Write the C-alpha cells for this entry.
Amino acid sequence: MGEFVHERHRPPVALPDACELVIACPPLRSNVNLSRIVRVASSCGVRRMIACGHATVDRKIARDGADQVAIERHRSLAPVLTRLRAAGFQLVGLEQTNRSRCVYQFPFRPRTVLVVGHERAGLEPAVLERLDEVVEIPVFGLPYSYNVATATAMVLYEYCRQFAAPPRPGGTARS
Amino acid sequence: MGEFVHERHRPPVALPDACELVIACPPLRSNVNLSRIVRVASSCGVRRMIACGHATVDRKIARDGADQVAIERHRSLAPVLTRLRAAGFQLVGLEQTNRSRCVYQFPFRPRTVLVVGHERAGLEPAVLERLDEVVEIPVFGLPYSYNVATATAMVLYEYCRQFAAPPRPGGTARS
C-alpha cells in the first residue's frame, strides 16, 4: 500500500451513446433545489432538462451545469411528458406511492425521463397518471423523505451505475 | 395498471444491526453542506457523525437529523480516526486519488467511517495517510466533481443499497 495522492477533477467517464436521461421538474419552491439538480445532472452526463414557470438557475450553485444542460421551460409538465413518451422515452416518477418500485432493483431504460415532484406536494395527479413507472428510494430514519435534489442525485447515481462501463481492475470506471 | 397513489413519508426500512456507519467531516467551508449531510445521513440511518471546529447545524436544513444524529466535535480528524480504526472501523475516504476504488464495486463493511473532504482542498494529508481505502464516484460531465453533500448522499445510497434487506416482490425494500 503506497500513499493516496490526490487526482482531483479527473476527466469524465462516458456513458453509452444510447443513454439519454431527461429530468423533468414541476414548478419547485426553491431555485436552490433546481440549481443543485442542474449541477448534479450535468456531472452525471444529463444534457436536457424540463423546468416549469419562471424558474431561474443560480450559476453559483449549478456551476458548469448552467451551460452544459439545455433547460426547456414549459407552463406545465403534462403535455411535454405526453410528447416525450410518444418519442420513445419511458416516464419514471420519483415518489413514494402504493405501487412504487424500489430503485435498487429498477432496471432503467437508456432513454428515460425522470420526473421529480414538488418539495411538499410531490408529483401532481396530472403527472402521476401519465407515468409508466414510479420508483422510490428506501428511507432508514427520520426525516422519512429526502430533499428533492438529494433524491434526484441518488437516482442519477443509480442510473449511471447501471450503464457505466465496467472499471479497470483496481481503478475507476472509465471508458 | 391502476393509478399511482401517494404514500408519502412512509416509515423507514431497517438496516441489519451490525451496520454502523459514521461520517467524519473536516472543518467545512459551508454549514449548509454540513447541515445537508446531517439530514441525508439521518434518513439513511446514520446515528453518529464527527465534525470539526465550531461547525453549527442549521436545523431548517438538517430537519429531524439535528436530533437523530449525535455529532461529536473535535479539533481535528486525525486522532479520532486513529481511535475509530483501533475500535474496529474501516476508514474509507471519499476522494479522487491515484488509488481510489470505484464506489460501484466497493464492498462496504458494516462498520465503516466515511471520511469526506473539504469543499476545495479535499482530504488533507494527515487524514489520507490514515485511511484504509479511498472510494470515488465516477463523473460523466462538467463540473468534474460533485458537491460534498451530494457525493456523501450518493455514497450513503450505495452503502444502504448493499445492506438493505431485499424488497418484497413489486414493492419497496423493508424489513
Q: What stands out?
A: Chain A has a mean pLDDT of 92.
